[in-house]
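Page 42, continued from yesterday. The earlier attempt failed because a stray header line got pasted into the input along with the sequence. Redoing it now with the clean sequence only.
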Amino acid sequence: MHSILGSSNIRWSFTPASVACAAGWPMGTGEPSLDPVVMVFGDRHTNSQLIKSQEIATMKKVRVVSAGLAMLAATSTVLADAGQATYQKACFACHNTGAAGSPKLGDKAAWAPRIKKGMATLEEHAIKGFKAMPPKGGRADLSDAEVKAAVAYMVKNSQ
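This time it went through. Structure tokens are written below.
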């Protein structure tokens, strides 16, 4: 449990959800697969480690959605790994050599300004084509999802 003193009247405590569940919080049963954080607000004199579960239930509780962020990061990694096969069959020829001005895989300086524009822009350029790059890298047989996975793979390996 980590505590941070806020104003003179408010104490913020950040508690792993697994601890909160053990304390009897109505957050579900079993052990969580991700460890989201629960924020408990109480007065500055409250020692939240010693509070009974009934007293905790009367305090204002806010669950911080860290689990969603962790799941987003995990999803991005899975998507990037799935994109490696598409990269090797459709993107490698240009993005490994820098053909027609394409940024090489792993070239952080070349990718940085592109990554800064956001994934939606990169995916749109890859799907619809951009400058010398044909739509889907010239592979009309690829699904949009495969192209997006290849973009995620290139971004993951170029930042």
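Notes: DSSP finds six helices and four strands in the chain.
Reminder to self: strip header lines before submitting.
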